[in-house]
Each structure stands twice: as C-alpha cells, then as structure tokens.
C-alpha cells in the first residue's frame, strides 16, 4: 500500500510560481514511476508530467512544456512539480500518482497505469 500526500498548492497571480511536493510512504518509491495530473471543474483529470524511477526520463503535457519541471528525490521519497509562468488556465486541483510497475515515459501519460493517487492540492491562478 502506498500513501501519497501533496502539498504546496495555493493562490498566485498570473506569471507567478509554485512548487508542489508529493511525499510517499509505503511501497518501494525508488522503483515507481511518478506522475502529476490536474483536474479543473467540469473537466476530466488530465496528464501534466511524469518521471521514471531513476529520474532519467520525463514527460510533459504540451501545455506545460518549458514552464513546469518535474523532479524527484528518492532518498526523501518525494516528487516535485516546479510550476513557473503560471496562467489562469492552470487553475485546477493537482494530484500526485504512483505507478508501482515503473512504466516508461510514453505509457506514464495515461491515468490507467497509475495504482495510487493522493488527495490533491488546489492551485488557483488569478489574472
């Protein structure tokens, strides 16, 4: 059983930055592919970014490329999402997810490969 707890959400103005963190417990974090997804009101949960177990491969949604950076610290069992140049359309609840089978960067874009999810953290960007 893997537990995931997100933190770092909040309210910022457009152009601002936030750093989300996701702390994991249980399981073998260093072998998991980790992902971030977001869900805006009335919309489906959408892929944002993912990182493989070693951090050697990452994947991003086109809408966040060049603005967001995913990273991980296996010693701390934590994955991060640095969000820069935020836009109002980034407003959503952001969820951390763990894939215990360690999918590659292409497969990690699908919600279906993830086994565990956090409760989410709200990000609100005002214009």
The mean pLDDT is 95
Helical content class: under 10%
Shape: globular
Number of helices: 0
Helix-strand pattern? EEEEEEEEEEE
Description:
With 127 residues, the chain is an all-beta fold. 0% of the residues lie in helices and 48% in strands. Strands 2, 4, 5, 6, 9, 10 and 11 form a seven-stranded mixed sheet that branches. It has a four-stranded antiparallel sheet with strand order 1-3-8-7, with no helix packed on it. It has no helices and eleven strands.
Primary descriptors:
127 residues, four-stranded antiparallel beta sheet, mainly beta, seven-stranded mixed beta sheet, globular
Record the SSE blueprint.
Layout: E1 3-7, E2 10-13, E3 18-25, E4 33-39, E5 46-51, E6 58-60, E7 68-73, E8 78-83, E9 92-99, E10 116-117, E11 121-126
Quick structural summary:
The chain is globular, with a radius of gyration of 13 Å. 0% of the residues lie in helices and 48% in strands. The chain is an all-beta fold and 127 residues long.
């Amino acid at each position: 059983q893997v537990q995931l707890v997100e933190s770092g959400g909040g309210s910022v103005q457009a152009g601002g930055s936030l750093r989300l963190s996701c702390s994991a417990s249980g399981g073998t974090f260093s072998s998991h592919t980790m992902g971030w997804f977001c869900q805006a009101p009335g919309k489906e949960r959408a892929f944002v970014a993912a990182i493989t177990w070693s951090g050697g491969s990452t994947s991003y949604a086109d809408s966040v490329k060049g603005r967001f950076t995913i990273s991980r610290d296996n010693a701390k069992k934590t994955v991060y999402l640095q969000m820069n140049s935020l836009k109002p359309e980034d407003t959503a609840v952001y969820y951390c997810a763990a894939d215990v089978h360690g999918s590659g960067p292409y497969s990690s874009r699908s919600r279906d490969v993830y086994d565990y999810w956090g409760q989410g953290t709200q990000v609100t960007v005002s214009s």
